[in-house]
Amino acid sequence: MSEEIKLMKGNEAIAHAAIRCGCDGYFGYPITPQSEIMETLMEEEPWKTTGMVVLQAESEVGAINMVYGGAGSGKKVMTSSSSPGISLKQEGISYIAGADLPCLIVNVMRGGPGLGTIQPSQADYFQAVKGGGHGDYQQIVLAPASVQEMADFTVLGFELAFKYLNPVMILADGIIGQMMEKVSLPLFQKRMTDEEIKEKYPWAAYGKPSHRKPNVISSLEIESVEMEKRNQRFQAKYRKIEENEVRFEELECQDAEYMLVAFGTSARVCQKTVELAREQGIKLGLIRPITLWPFPKNEIAKYTSQVKCFFSIEMNAGQMVEDVRLAVNGKTEVAYYGRMGGIVPSPDEVIEFVKTKMV
Amino acid sequence: MKEEIIIAGFGGQGVLSMGKILAYSGLMEGQEVSWMPSYGPEQRGGTANVTVILSDKRISSPILNTFDTAILLNQQSLDKFEKAVKPGGVLIFDGNGISKPPTRKDIDIYQIQATDKSIELNAHKSFNMIVLGGFLKLRPIVKMESVILGLKKSLPERHHHLIPVNENAIKAGMEIINKI
Amino acid sequence: MAIQNIIKPENLVYTKSKILTDIPMHYCPGCSHGVVNKLMAEVIEEMGIQEDVIGVAPVGCAVFIYKFLDIDFQQAAHGRAPAVATAIKRLMPNKYVFTYQGDGDLAAIGTAETIHACNRGENILIIYINNGIYGMTGGQMAPTTIDGMKTATCPYGRNNEVNGYPLNITNLLAILEGTCYVTRQSVHNAGSVRKTKQAILKGFKNSMLGKGTSVIEVVSTCNSGWKMTPEQANNWMVENMFPVYPMGDLKDL
Fold it and tell me: Does the beta-carbon distance from C80 to A75 stay under 8 Å?
């Protein structure tokens, strides 16, 4: 389903994939290290070709609420930002989740807290997978580890968002956003017409014909009995997503006595670590969660009898390690190694750490 | 084949674009490639660096601590990355403005007077292509045709008339690289 | 004469707009919101645009406006209605899109969204109810609360030194290049109600002419929040609010 192989940055791949997959609107606000997404879109001028709207908003808050408005109209809409900007968007994401709206949010993470650093980080893991905004909600979180996956997950993200009427986040980091690799872009899909949207998304607020009741896009329900019912419906949806949408990749797991668990850039570092370890005769494997929520807990649990120690390797103070521990459930040892503040752990550091836990 | 390269120097020396042309050249030959720049304010006025990997297998980590080849184009970059060359690896530096030349004995060190050559050729902007020529002389990891194709891919069309100038610069660079 | 003989079409002098639903409005008796909601319904009906209009509801007393008008709605987060409306109109340019916001929503928490939507000249209609107080949360100070006016969070009266000055945001919006029609109206008597209806009609029409944003401020009463009878509130508004927020068009291109 692909065309010519190109060389581009992860951020650029997202922009091109969005245009190609029939995205109706992008609303954003510049922030390093992801500004190339909007810059690429503005350069491509898709409003002249596919009709896609691209708008630089007054703030991240403005942008996410534009996404709310677009999604409520049944349109395929997205935004992107980096950590501090994603914090600002949390109100809107909660409303989007609370109103059963589909959308794609890209977070090209940088080191925090606060203004922090523009260098790569994975410190927004908790925010992305445990909620972020207020209320009991979940967003599907996809963690690309290559430029190709930046393009692929843009397409996949929209598919999942509309399948479940739920926000989907691509959780990348400065490395994946800034690095250039080979990518084969998705084929062009036509944007849906207003007529097709009416037929396919009868819930959308596109203007009320006389034969139906008004469509109201809202997360508000004053009656707590009704609000509980709405929450139960959300939870049922989340269980279905957990059942159907877990994605992960395994590397050298079959005979692994020690197992790395890592996503995104950390997983790339860990691939190298596995190569080095195997050269040294260490039976090291790697599980790379692709969906961070839903988390591949059963897939990790499968290895608890075979593996002497799991290592959660992260570019943060140890966040995903909590989910690895829940998956392992005390059946074997779980350790964490990571770097913070924009530093990427090196394969050598990781292998040295693994050796400290070897019996 | 796998070549892990770091190119570092001042912002404005064409470090990032040299890496880009190298990556595009690899792409033209169907190799796996990655290009990972230092990004943000570090680039402005200060030093810029880029890690380029060309490989016939899937590339694992795009960021590395050690390199097969280091192309270091100012003193700060030499100070920072001389130690990052793998034993038996290659270090290329431009002697212009260098007060403390590299000293390691377990690597091959080459000097290229690319700044002088670019002045001589009256082609200041081809500095990075002269360096690239020197590198390709030592490590012919991509063919010259692929580099020309790579230039075409990475340069905007309005600059395509400069390709012959760049080709000449690459050839000139091949002639002036010397082992220390 | 028996009542059945009176209820005949030929005797009909007034009827509720078809766009108004049968759900009882929750607004306090005497509140201006009910009147403005009714005017919205009448204009939508008279223009025949029910199928082509999308409203954006605020947070505040008018949060449930979507229950009272029989049209499609999106309910926005507090202050964000102009951003929500921006995307709706950009993605469906052939639809009429309006926001309905109070002074807390539009002139405090949503100042950035309001100013920037107007500055971009979004082809939307903004209806802005200014009653100088936060009604829904129980009568706290608004950005538009006038000097000396008592509220739950300025119980001794608004004091410039402590609370700053009443924000006349409509004047600000009128100087922006992106707005085409900015007017200040009220609904406290029959004449003003008629004028406000004309303003709403013009605002809706503008949004299909590509001229930019239309803003209608309706200086309003909140007799509950002001702790007055509806009649006292009307009089108080005329005497105290109108000097600060004078009636009339600020811009009409």
Answer: no
Question: What is the Cα–Cα distance from A290 to A149, expressed in whole angstroms?
Answer: 10
Q: Where are the alpha helices (DSSP H) in chain B?
A: 15-28, 75-81, 114-120, 127-138, 144-154, 163-175
In a domain, C203, yes or no: yes
B27 touches chain A (CB under 8 A): yes
Asked if residue B178 belongs to a domain, the reply is no
Instruction: Mention every residue, 6+ apart, whose C-beta is less than 8 A from residue C19.
Output: C40, C41, C42, C44, C45, C50, C69, C70, C71
The answer to whether residue C14 sits within a structural domain is: no
Query: Is C4 among the domain residues?
Result: no
Return d(Cα B152, Cα B157) in angstroms, integer: 8
Q: What is the DSSP string of C135-168?
A: TTTTSEE-TTPPTT--BTTBTT---HHHH-----
Say how far apart CA A290 and CA A135 lie, in whole Å: 25
Q: Do chains B and C touch (3 or more CB pairs under 8 A)?
A: no
Q: What is the pLDDT of residues C164-192, one digit of tens each?
A: 999 999 999 999 999 999 999 999 999 99
Say if A215 is an interface residue toward chain C (CB within 8 Å).
yes
**CATH code for the domain in which residue C178 is found:** 3.40.50.970
| pTM tops 0.90 | yes
Pairs of CB atoms within 8 A across A/C: 130
Q: Per residue in A237-251, pLDDT tens? A: 999 999 999 999 999
What is the torsion angle, in degrees rounded to the nearest 10, for the CA atoms of residue A57, residue A58, residue A63 and residue A69? -80
Whole-number Cα distances in Å, A31 to A80, B19, B53, B83? 9, 25, 28, 34
Residue B132 lies in a domain: no
Least CA distance to C18: which residue of chain A? A210
Q: Is A272 on the interface with B (CB under 8 A)?
A: yes
**What are phi and psi for residue C251, nearest 5 degrees?**
-165, 135
- Residue-wise pLDDT tens digits, B87-123: 999 999 999 989 999 999 999 999 999 999 999 998 8
pLDDT at B44 over 90: no
Mutate to test the interface with A, among C72, C124, C136, C213 (most CBs of A within 10 A): C72
Q: Does B60 touch chain A (CB under 8 A)?
A: yes
C76 touches chain A (CB under 8 A): yes
The complex scores an ipTM of 0.95
CA distance A4 to chain C (A): 31
